[in-house]
Amino acid sequence: MGEDEFRAEVRRWLEENLSGEFAAARGLGGPGREHEGHEIRLAWERHLGAAGWTCLGWPAEHGGRNATLEQQVAFFEEYARAGAPHRVGHIGEGLIGPTIIDFGTERHKRRFLPPIRRGEELWCQGYSEPSAGSDLAGVRTRAELVGDEWVLHGQKVWTSLAHVADWCFVLCRTEPGSTRHRGLSYLLVPMDQPGVEVRPIVQATGTSEFNEVFFDGAKTAADDILGAPGEGWRVAMATLGYERGASTLGQQILFRRELDEVVAAARRSGANRDPLIRDRLARAWMELDVMRLNALRTMRSLSAGEPGPEASIAKLYWSEWHRRLGELAVDVRGVAGLVADGAPYDLSDAQRLLLFSRSDTIYAGSSEIQRNIIAERTLGLPREPRG
């Protein structure tokens, strides 16, 4: 099926199905708004799975469609244009699913892939810790093999959607005395058990999609490990590579919608008559077009098995662009942009964008780390001193 025919099929299906019981799901969720309509979005996830619209890029033998890169881009763009709700299963589909396909045993694939594809099990990512955020090799959460189970102790932080997740993939230290990249393992841990405590973190937006997760004797089966013990770093880096897939094109459709609203607000307030504001609006428009071209280049490199600096460039570029858009969204509203819509803390969309977009430059590799990667691995500059 060609791209145009596939795109038309996607558009037609979304138009027919974002109606009736799912009409109320339109536009729900997204960064800073993950609290919205979780139950109806979960039902929508399962509806997508039943119709075969999840995990498009997965191989057919694992329940996917073997969709081409162009078809995946078409799906995510049409999905965003239709105003469909933000996916609740994206961590399972986009991160742990491909990791299990590449590193998991046949038992892992039979056990974990079908519930992800059907939208029946949700996942979260157990990477960052209070003393190991961007420096992921510094994780201290530990696990010990006791009989036929791993027993975990430690803390993770900034764990997106942990409060609704069924499973967590956890990077932890399984070799006592090991340091940095050595001695790490990649475990699959059930969340609903004694020894797992989830504490939501209230953000500047007033919402709580990020969490602290405490492991105090939590357990998982000895064979619920991807790769061999001590190979966790290699598996974890592969997972991060999957994070920048075709869905980024859908993300940019949402960025375009946000930018259009900023332009409309500038016209309403008269801020568009300010030459400095006009310049910032024009730059935002041009930079968004450049972002799309770079995203396509990145995905072609990844699909060809040739990962290069493009992934780091893309993450740095879009996150910093989105942060600047948040600032612009408030600036075009003038003094009114500084006042909450209502008591006690009712934020406007522009204010929520300003506050939440700060996190874009931190999660999934902070801007500082991305700059180091580009400088050291691409430009060949000296490594930053490690104190």
Keywords:
387 residues; Butyryl-CoA Dehydrogenase, subunit A, domain 2; Butyryl-CoA Dehydrogenase, subunit A, domain 3; 4-stranded antiparallel β-sheet; 8 strands; AcylCoA_DH/oxidase_NM_dom_sf; Acyl-CoA_Oxase/DH_mid-dom; flavoprotein; oxidoreductase activity, acting on the CH-CH group of donors; Mycobact_Acyl-CoA_DH
Explain how this protein is built:
Helices cover 45% and strands 13% of the residues. The chain has 387 residues and is an alpha+beta fold. It has three domains: 86 residues, Acyl-CoA dehydrogenase/oxidase, N-terminal domain (Butyryl-Coa Dehydrogenase, subunit A, domain 1); 108 residues, Butyryl-CoA Dehydrogenase, subunit A, domain 2; 135 residues, Butyryl-CoA Dehydrogenase, subunit A, domain 3 (Up-down Bundle), CATH 1.20.140.10. Helix 7 packs parallel to helix 9. The radius of gyration is 21 Å and the shape is globular.
Question: What's the structural blueprint in terms of helices and strands?
Answer:
Elements: H1 3-17, H2 38-50, H3 69-81, H4 90-103, H5 106-117, E1 123-126, E2 142-146, E3 149-156, E4 167-173, E5 184-190, E6 196-200, E7 211-221, E8 225-226, H6 232-242, H7 247-269, H8 275-303, H9 310-331, H10 349-360, H11 367-378
Helix pairs in contact: 1-3, 3-7, 4-5, 4-6, 7-8, 7-9, 8-9, 9-10, 9-11
Protein name: Acyl-CoA dehydrogenase
Keywords: FAD, Flavoprotein, Oxidoreductase
Domain Acyl-CoA dehydrogenase/oxidase C-terminal: 230-378
Question: Quick one: biggest sheet?
Answer: 4 strands, mixed
N-to-C terminal Cα separation, in Å? 55 Å
CATH superfamily label of the largest domain = Butyryl-CoA Dehydrogenase, subunit A, domain 3
CATH architecture assignment of the largest domain: Up-down Bundle
Count of beta strands: 8
Number of helices: 11
Number of domains: 3
Q: Round the Cα radius of gyration to an integer and report it.
A: 21 Å
What sequence of helices (H) and strands (E) makes up the elements?
HHHHHEEEEEEEEHHHHHH
Structural class: alpha+beta
- The percent of residues in helical segments reads 40-55%
Judging from the principal axes of the Cα atoms, what is the shape?
A: globular
Question: What is the percentage of strand-forming residues?
Answer: 5-15%
Record the strand order, biggest sheet: 1-4-5-8
Spans of at least 5 consecutive residues whose pLDDT stays below 50 are none
Name of the CATH first level of the largest domain: Mainly Alpha
Let me know the average pLDDT: 89
